[in-house]
Design brief:
By secondary structure, the protein is α+β, with helices and mostly antiparallel strands. The chain has 15 helices and 37 strands. Strand 20 and strand 21 form a beta hairpin. It binds alpha-D-glucopyranose.
Length: about 650
């Protein structure tokens, strides 16, 4: 059951979509309401575990920890970092008492969970206007499902977006993209997409294409599609403020941009130099921004990633020229610590129905509203499903697209965090998510790290290898023994019938695609496991996430089948419940199939274009599998498209 208490007059956040029973008083938390804040306190029991908080750092258990919801462009995600790109204020206390809480406010909020051994939960929101949702249920899984039911179904991407995607900030022209595709195709390493970073644009201006670098983008897109590869361009939040630029002129004329404290157009500096920021609170402005995607979909493009939408603002008073923006990178990186951007975010307003909101007070829903604008726009423009993933998000963003976890680093801890982040993200319906596999930042090629990271990412719906301009080369064909990379990606492609089916069933049933063990198994050990995951209904994974290791302990809550894949063949072995030692070298991948379950697999293909979802083999010792199946692109996605396979 879910109920809500309303404090003050909260702004619409487009997160909960169902009508929820309102309560006048709540007794779960003690509450303190001051002139500008609301504080909630709850006394924890010794063994309570806390799940949730979306993409935040730390383990699956968020206790002890401090999390500050204040969407931040942060390139240094160490474990103590309190703020990342999104705000997902949903958590569950799992212990003697069991309940879920969603603090629905776009204002900066601090969540202390037994921080400094306080033994309490203390939540401080910098607002007097919010909705507090309380969800009851028998266990964490049923509470999560109740929550998911109320925030609506997850976005369902086109089939190609479950293929492997290569990306790098630094592919600048047609030739670069052709070389990447050739690099993969020549070595028979499957690939379905290449991301286009900001250099495809004309002077980093949204919804433009640099004609010198891409003289015939339509042909390129078409040739690539015929070869089973989609180009996926980026769109940034800031729109270059320049007279004569159509998008800039139009937005000014229609009064769709944010205003500063003097009611003048607000400008902040990002990649293109001075930028305007769309007031996404205004539904007409959202429609207008969404319609602009047509400039790019007209080239045959059907997928995008949207970025810098916290929004990231380097500075608001011009400090140096655009050219220097790149040269003075070091300096910029320190300026990019957006958690300190109080001054910038207090310098502009967003207007809704004649009411002005200081951006700072509603900061956490900026990326979310850009995601809504983009998703709705693409849905209107395209006849088939679109691909969309954002850097910034809020609860509710999952209905319009997915996310990636931002500018991580090539470190083993970030691989570990990718694994734990998947739980929090699935708890808020952000099923189409994943990290920059191998790390966005990192100058030195680390073959082992990339291989191990891929062994995790083949199970996350977004499977993208992306790196910054100064990072080492990370395309698989640039490494020694590319066969090892091919083996892993081959497994991803063979699992696509399963991944697709489980993803769509999870979305249609308001369910999670990735779960912690404890959501299904009720034993003590499952409750403590932080480095294994359930993927869909049949698979458990226990990836090796430590440097130099080929062995690890794995906990099996029930008898399972160990599946070892060498790139071509599957080798299935029964393993007994309890602890076991897993050996996995770099040239193979191992995963587990739960007892009495099945996994449909396809023949090997180089692109999802050639996948035959109807023609599958079954792994595992179950007897029946419900396969979701369609052409991968229709918008008509219903539970009627399920067939039963038997073994
Ligand atoms: C941001 C994004 C990154 C992108 C870069 C250039 O840092 O997070 O993915 O490559 O901007 O657009």
């Amino acid at each position: 059951m879910i109920v809500k208490k309303i404090y003050g007059s909260p702004i619409e956040t487009y997160s909960v979509i169902n009508k929820v029973t309102e309560i006048k008083e709540q007794s779960l938390f003690s509450e303190l309401i001051s002139d500008s804040t609301i504080t909630f306190k709850y006394k924890l029991n010794k063994d309570d575990i806390i799940y949730g908080m979306g993409e935040t750092m730390n383990g699956m258990n968020k206790r002890p920890g401090r999390y500050i919801s204040f969407n931040t462009d942060n390139t240094n995600h160490h474990d103590g970092v309190c703020s990342l790109y999104g705000t997902h204020n949903f958590f569950i206390v799992d212990g003697i008492d069991h309940f879920g809480v969603f603090v629905d406010t776009p204002s900066r909020s601090i969540f202390d969970f037994d921080y400094n051994d306080s033994g309490i939960i203390e939540i401080t929101c910098e607002t007097k206007d919010l909705n507090l949702y309380i969800i009851s249920g028998d266990d964490s899984y049923s509470i999560t499902k109740e929550f998911l039911l109320n925030i609506g179904k997850s976005f369902i991407p086109p089939l190609y977006s479950l293929g492997y995607i290569q990306s790098r900030w630094g592919y600048t022209n047609e030739e670069d993209f052709k070389n990447v595709l050739k690099g993969y195709r020549d070595l028979n390493i499957p690939l379905d997409g290449i991301c286009m970073d900001i250099d495809y644009m004309d002077s980093y201006i949204d919804f433009t294409v640099n004609k010198n670098r891409f003289p015939d983008l339509k042909k390129l897109v078409n040739d690539f599609k015929n070869d089973g590869c989609h180009l996926i361009p980026i769109i940034d939040a800031g729109i270059k403020a320049k007279k004569g630029e159509p998008t800039s002129d139009e937005g000014v004329k229609l009064d769709y941009f944010c205003k500063d404290t003097n009611n003048k157009l607000f400008k902040g500096y990002v990649w293109p130099g001075a930028c305007y920021f769309t007031n996404f609170l205004n539904s007409d402005a959202r429609k207008w921004f969404g319609s602009k995607f047509k400039n790019i979909t007209d080239y045959g493009i059907d997928g995008f990633w949207i970025d810098m939408n916290e929004p990231a603002i380097f500075f608001i008073k011009k400090k140096f020229s655009l050219k220097n923006l790149f040269i003075k990178k070091e300096k910029i990186e320190s300026m990019v610590d957006q958690s300190k951007k109080v001054f910038e975010y207090k310098s502009f307003y967003q207007e809704l129905d004649g009411k002005k909101y200081l951006h700072y007070d509603i900061h956490n829903m900026y990326g979310h509203t850009m995601q809504i604008a983009s998703g709705e726009g693409l849905n209107n423009i395209l006849n088939t499903r679109y691909l969309l993933f954002s850097r910034s998000s809020y609860v509710g963003s999952h209905r319009y697209g997915g996310i990636w976890t931002g500018d991580n680093r090539a470190t083993w801890n970030h691989l570990r965090r990718n694994l734990t982040q998947m739980v929090g993200l699935n708890m808020v319906g952000l099923l189409y998510s994943g990290a920059d596999t191998g790390g966005f930042i990192g100058g030195i090629q680390n073959r082992e790290l990339l291989l191990r990271w891929m062994m995790l990412s083949i199970f996350t719906p977004l499977f993208r290898n992306h790196a910054t301009r100064t990072a080492c080369k990370k395309e698989c064909y640039n490494f020694d023994k590319p066969d090892d990379f091919r083996n892993i990606i081959n497994l991803r492609y063979r699992l696509i019938p399963y991944i697709y089916s489980e993803y769509v069933k999870a979305a249609l049933n308001n369910d999670m695609y990735i779960k912690p063990l404890s959501f299904i198994y009720k034993d003590k050990d499952s409750r403590l496991i932080e480095d294994q995951l359930l993927v869909g209904d049949s698979i458990m994974i226990a990836p090796i996430i430590d440097e130099g290791k080929t062995l690890r302990d794995v906990y099996l809550p029930e008898d399972m089948i160990e599946v070892r894949f060498d790139g071509y063949k599957f080798n299935e072995t029964n393993v007994k419940k309890g602890y076991t030692t897993l050996k996995c070298n770099l040239d193979e991948v191992v995963f587990y199939i739960r007892n009495n379950k099945l996994v449909p697999i396809s023949k090997l293909v180089q692109s999802t274009k050639d996948i035959d979802l109807y023609n599958v083999e079954l792994l595992g010792n179950g007897h029946e599998y419900k396969q979701y199946i369609d052409d991968g692109y229709t918008k008509d996605v219903t539970l009627n498209n399920i067939r039963t396979l038997t073994k």
